Amino acid sequence: MPEFLKLLIDLISILLLAKIFSEGASKFGQSAILGELLAGVVLGPSVLSIVHETSILTNISEIGAIILLFEVGLSTNIYDFLKAGGWATAVAIVGVVIPYFLGYLVFIYFGFTNIQAIFAGAILTATSVGITARIFMDLDYLKTEESKIVLGAAVIDDIIGLILLGIVLRLIHGDLITFKTVTSISGSAILFLIITIIFGKMMSQKIFNIFQKMKQPYIILIISLIFCFVISALSIKVELAPIIGAFVGGLILSTIKQCEEIKTDIKPLYAFFVPIFFVLIGTNVDINAFNPFVNENKSSFFLIFILFLVAFIGKTASGFVIFKKGINKILIGISMVPRGEVGLIFLSLGLKNNIFSIKEYSTLIVVIILTTFITPVILKYVILKQKNC
User: Fold this and answer.
1) Count of CB atoms situated within 10 Å of the CB of 178
2) Which of 35, 119, 210, 315 can pair with 336 through a Cys bridge, CB separation 3.0 to 4.6 Å?
3) In angstroms, rounded to a whole number, what is the distance separating the alpha carbons of residues 164 and 175?
4) What DSSP letter does each residue of 305-353 carry, written as one string?
């Protein structure tokens, strides 16, 4: 089959099933991400074997990851982020530290390598702000103090996670795991973020004011994408993941007056590229790893159960760092549980860098899916119970 024809068939299959499965997920009150992951599992080698990851599809999906994090940055007003307050910061830090070290210890206990344990811990740190925000929106809970703390914490959580990702990727490429190395990598990552945000904030509005005078269609969108890609390229140059640059680019542009126009114009690109990213993640899942009649799979089920407990308890504990009266600590903790976009990006990088086998990758995918599937049900119950009190 000609290569281009195969690409077209792959794109048709991916986009069609992504939308069908996402619609099904929405009907059951779940995130569209869950539908896209399941579409990937069905299309992948272990079920229908229609879509196989190729270099072209991988590059397209990586553009999807960049657009995803760019949009997250655009939706995170930097001023609101800075006003998130000490409680949000405390929740975020505890919500990263506990799941990270528990995940690390579980992987070490099960006999995995040190670098696998480090990566697994990192995967368990990220909170999906999109899933939590959607639940708050549906239940008219966005204006509460708990909501503000959770959304602020989720953003800080992602930033810590992205810095952690930069550290882990550097360790993968040969740096020794020492306090000095980790401090150096953390410092360079934070320095990159600070310098980029400061200079980007100084120049971005002036740049967009100049180009806005042009009569070319979608000029603001094009310049915003160039802006995003430039910072993503710079992040690669300093040995950080391109998604870190994409997030920073979005964070900078969230403060300019053209922000709402960019967010509106980027929606079609988001709708095309981002599902491809999540579907490809799903294609790498091997469902044979969950065959209950295979004895060697029993350890995988036990690992999934333990990691889910770690993922759930580790994030729920973060709500208990708040000592302010009148705050629902359980609600805040449970709101931090869903893993999603950033965790899946971590996981895909782990597979591409040969940190995980397909079986280990599949196990961690299931843990992420369980947190996104179960949490909305519990969270809705907790919120409705509080409203009725």
Assistant:
1) 9
2) 315
3) 14
4) HHHHHHHHHHHHGGGGG---TT--HHHHHHHT----HHHHHHHHHHHHT
Q: What is the DSSP string of 223-241?
A: HHHHHHHHHHHHHHHTTS-
- Asked if residues 154 and 135 have their Cβ atoms less than 8 Å apart, the reply is no
For residues 117 and 123, what is the distance between their CA atoms, to the nearest angstrom? Answer: 10
If we measure between CA atoms, which residue out of 339, 318, 330 comes closest to residue 379?
330
Query: Which amino acid, residue 269?
Result: L
- DSSP reduced 3-state for 37: helix
User: 110-120 as b/e, with b when 16 or more CB fall inside 10 Å?
Assistant: bebeebbbbbb
What's CA 152's distance to the chain center, in Å? 15
Closest by alpha carbon to 301, among 310, 292, 288? 292
CA–CA distance from 41 to each of 29, 152, 281 (Å)? 20, 33, 8
Pick the closest to residue 241 from 32, 116, 359, 68 (CA basis). Answer: 68
CA angle 29/31/36 to nearest 5° reads: 125
pTM (predicted TM-score): 0.80
Are the C-beta atoms of 281 and 51 separated by less than 8 Å? no
Q: How far is CA 137 from CA 69, 130, 236, 292, 330, in A?
A: 21, 10, 36, 39, 19
Two tokens, residue 350: 């782990």
- Chain centroid to Cα 170, Å, comes to 19
What residue ranges do the domains of the chain occupy? 30-51+61-388
| Amino acid letter, 65 | A
> How big is the CA angle at 73 (ends 278 and 10), to the nearest 5 degrees?
20
pLDDT tens figures, 238-262 = 877 788 889 889 989 998 999 999 9
**Residue appearing with tokens 């931090």:** 336
| Alpha carbon distance 273, 127 (integer Å) | 22
Q: Which residues of the chain have pLDDT under 70?
A: 77-85, 129-135, 137-138, 142, 173-179, 181, 340, 389
Name residue 357's amino acid: S
Its CATH class, for the domain covering 30-51+61-388, is mainly alpha
98 CB-near residues (< 8 Å, 6+ apart): 313, 314, 315, 317, 318
Going by the DSSP 8-state scheme, the letter that residue 45 receives in this structure is: T
The phi-psi region of residue 367 (left if phi > 0; otherwise alpha if psi is between -120 and 50; otherwise beta) is: alpha
